Amino acid sequence: MTLTLVHGAETPKLAARSTAEGQISVRDLAVRHGSNPVVFSEVSFHIERGETVALIGANGAGKSTLLKCCLGLMAPANGEVRMSGQPIGGLGTGALRRLRGTVGFVAQKHNLVSRLSVLSNVLHGTLAANPGPGAWLHALASATQRERAMEALERVGLAHLALKRADQLSGGQSQRVAIARALVGGPRFIFADEPAASLDPAAGEEVMQVFVRVARDTRTTLVFTTHNLDHALTYAERVLGLCERRLALDAPANSLQTGGLRDLYN
Amino acid sequence: MTSTTDTTARSGRPLPPRFVRPSISTFLGYLVGLAVLVWSIQGSGWSTTAMLDGVPALMDFLSRAWPPSLTRIETLSQALVQTFQMAIVGTVAGVVLSVPLAILAARGLLAGRIVNGLARAVIAFFRTVPDLVWALIFVIAVGLGPFAGTLAIAVDTAGFCGRFFAEAMEDTDKGPVESLRAQGVRRLDTIFCAVIPAAMPAFITTTLFALEKSTRSSVILGLVGAGGIGLELKVAMDMFDYPTAATVILMVFGLVMLVEQAGSWARGRIIG
After folding, report:
1. Is the pLDDT of residue A21 over 50?
2. Measured between CB atoms, which of A98, A107, A136 is closest to B175?
3. Which residues of chain B make contact with A112, given a CB cutoff of 8 A?
4. B104-146, pLDDT tens digit by residue?
5. Residue A21, C-beta contacts closer than 8 angstroms, at least 6 positions apart
6. Do A73 and B182 touch (CB under 8 A)?
7. Omega before B67 cis (within 30°)?
């Protein structure tokens, strides 16, 4: 198998585009953790709107850190991240928050508010666009907001559990609710940090299928990190691999095989 | 730190020691603690002889107080109801006041370190000044009567709940907030939709404890003219009307027990 190895020298050209909506451009990105050694450096890639990209690499390779940099939750030591053409590092608080409002985020541990209903949790995904008490609880939400939240739940097949408390759901159901929460605001990007890691294999497959189907239906850019190489090859169109503090792999998923990807973990 | 003699098992292997000999600093710490206790006993006037000598006087009081008098039961009942009303309104007002204070005091939630520190200082001031002192201050401010007592309970409750609410919010799982912040949700919204719901069991438990505490406090506040049944107790004691005083004590005992039992039941129902 041949890996398309992308080292820092092969920085892709960031051609000017008429519309950069839904695109992610990362150029020469480097991150350090305090006085610790470099997490990664010279990371560059460009993701088109609607692409589904898997980000793989060993523990500590910097996958979650890279996602945080894209969301402006962590400042890089060097380099630039552009989301929808906007440089994350140059945005003020309000502009950054508006940009994040175009993102749906799903964490490994679903991160639902356990004591609230499924519907309330999904409504929280609309808070960026509609701040205030109307989306704190489903009892306070307008009919329009509740309808949107129910549509998002229908997409993940959980509309029938709308009034159930989040802490009464299975792991797979919780993660699907987290996906609905990420979708309800009509995001241009979905970032998912190991979304299937805490699930059993069947639930993991189910969650990944929902992810990819929804992202394709809505032409949303999807970036997910995973240790499951089968998931990376099955559900992503493209795979990025971090290894030895560099972006060591950037290749179409259909050109890769699981065995070859294991090299990234050695 | 050295260990005491090891015990040897049948296999001949040495076993871990049952006790660990304290280090010199730990031993000195014990000695200092003991010295402080002895010093405090001397200062507090603790006297077993005086306690034993006081038993006949206590028995005399009990014999004069028994049986409790029911002649003023209607007035006393009204005062008891007023005491409970003071406790309820004071607790609710205190809880309402404590929520914004706790949000400002909780570290890493909304405000920066300076505001955290100021809010914590206000909460500590509310909590450390005894409720009886607050009652005296409010009697001067708003005059004698239950309103002064209610205000004293409110301030005391704000200090009590403010601290525990802030700690409860700091201890909540940060995951939901991080996920929502990643999606552009404002800090204030994350507090109301994620942090407070997660801290709600602690809020309810603390509020019920505050109500129990307020009920006990509201009895004492009457002693300084801040309304409630405490005033009746003081008058009865001053007039050597011990049967009426006994009635007041038993009524207060019944009310506090009732509130504590109701609180335990409510905690089980609401949180469980």
Report:
1. yes
2. A107
3. 176
4. 999 989 889 999 999 999 999 999 999 899 999 999 999 888 8
5. A49, A84, A85, A188
6. yes
7. yes
pLDDT of residue A159: 92
Sheet with A78-83: strands ordered across: A38-47, A24-32, A78-83, A86-87
Instruction: List all residues 6 or more positions away from A34 whose beta carbon is below 8 Å from its beta carbon.
Output: none
Which alpha helices (DSSP H) does A192-254 contain, by range?
201-218, 229-235
User: How does the average pLDDT of chain A come out, rounded?
Assistant: 87
Nearest by CB to residue B197, choosing from A98, A113, A182, is A113
Average pLDDT, chain B: 89
Domains and CATH numbers, chain A: 1-14+21-95+231-266 (3.40.50.300)
Q: Which two tokens stand for residue A69?
A: 């940099």
Residue B156 CB-density burial (10 A; 0-12 exposed, 13-18 middle, 19+ buried): buried
> Binning pLDDT at 50, 70 and 90, where does residue B218 land?
confident
A136:B193 CB<8 A: yes
Interfacial residues of A (vs B; Cβ cutoff 8 Å):
71, 73, 97-107, 109, 111-116, 120, 124-125, 127-128, 131-133, 135-137, 178, 181-182, 185, 187, 191
Which of A104, A133, A136 is the closest to B183 by Cβ?
Answer: A104
Cβ pair A105:B183 closer than 8 A: yes
Q: DSSP assignment, residue B17? A: P
Averaged pLDDT, A119-134: 93
What percent of chain B has a predicted confidence (pLDDT) above 90?
A: 60
Give the number of A-B residue pairs with CB atoms closer than 8 Å.
77
Distance CA B129, CA B149 (A): 14
- Of the candidate CATH numbers 1.10.3720.10, 2.40.10.240, 3.20.20.80, 3.30.420.40, the domain formed by B75-271 belongs to 1.10.3720.10
CB atoms within 10 A of CB A89: 14
Q: Which of A71, A109, A136 sits opposite B182 (nearest CB)?
A: A71
- Per-residue burial over B115-142, b if 16 or more Cβ lie within 10 Å, else e, is ebeebbebbeebbeeebbebbbebbeee
